[in-house]
Amino acid sequence: MKYELSPTFKVTRLDEKSRVLVHAGTGDARVHLALEGPESQPLVQWLLGQHTARADDALATDAAATLGMNLEDARELVAHLVDNGVLTSSTSVDTARRHIEVWGQYGWRDAADFHLATTGLRFIPDQVDGLSYEDYFSRMVDDTESAGEQPHPAISVEGPRVTSPDECTSTTSLAETLTRSKPINRFVGDPVALAEFLSPLREAFGVQRTVGGLLGPHHLRSYPSGGARHPFEAYVVSKGLADLPQGVYYFDPITNELVVRGTPGDAAQIDTACFGKGGIVSADAVIVLTCRWLRHSWKYRYARSYRMLMLEVGHIVQAVHLAMRSHDVGVYHCPSINDLLLRQILTLGDDCAEGPVYALGLGHEGVR
Length: 368
Prior knowledge:
Radius of gyration: 26 Å
Number of helices: 13
Pfam families: Nitroreductase (PF00881)
Strand order of the largest sheet: 9-15-14-13-16-18-17
Structural class: alpha+beta
Protein name: SagB/ThcOx family dehydrogenase
CATH topology of the largest domain: NADH Oxidase
Organism: Promicromonospora vindobonensis
Distance between the termini: 58 Å
Largest sheet: 7 strands, antiparallel
Helix content: 25-40%
Shape: elongated
InterPro entries: Bacteriocin_Proc_Enz, Nitroreductase, Nitroreductase-like
CATH architecture of the largest domain: 3-Layer(aba) Sandwich
Number of domains: 3
Strand content: 15-25%
């Protein structure tokens, strides 16, 4: 059988112990090998050149000559790399490469890497290495060296607070709300008022109550969240309403108030940040959803959990959409966002700490 470098091969320069890490394989068969010592760099360089299928004996001979090893050690090295999926059969390489090429034709090259790397990964079962689910996570809470302290379930944002003296209560049935929920491209009606959209935002996104749990206090809301981690935040960008001046506001899900951002970016750039989409340009206010990634990944420490976050965005968007429509506020859905510009508008720093994922335009009389 002939072998070559796995298409899912990745290199991480250094880990916390200054080792070179290599990754290969897919799903539960994905491996992470740590390389240390002066021979690690030449080995990585040699691996990156293995794009021609060769028999294991030929690979061992080449490795011995290139890396200055004796032939027996080189054979053991090649066998180890084959066993761990770093070097893989030409048949499986051809299959993976074909899938990557097909997805790449449609602009999904990076998505193909993620899909291949996470397909087949298991979620945490009720028994982990003989430990109960409860004991497993209890140990995780006590272990602050691996991933640090557990992120707090909510953030604290200082600043003047805005609320509406009026509470809008909807009497619209679910059937009527669903009937109203047609897709739109832009708004042509009168401006929305703060009370009109703040009440349904509270209903959809606000914390209903805080309860105790295995990992401490956590929130319950109207939509499902993996492990009740609720890593998403909501910001309101007002274009200048009669009762909400132009600016950027954080929605506090606990108090259900809007908090004025101390040094906001330019709210007028929101249209540009959403690539001039008609439902944003014609909106009176825009809700921007962001994710505080570590609040989720601290508990779910495997790559496939990123998919859980994308599913949760859908739950949130639908909850907000239905709540708004029940109050006769229109919603335009906009996944087309300029991450960098939105971060500037919201004054967010590290995108891997908190990053924007979705925007929702609000207005009246949405039309196609």
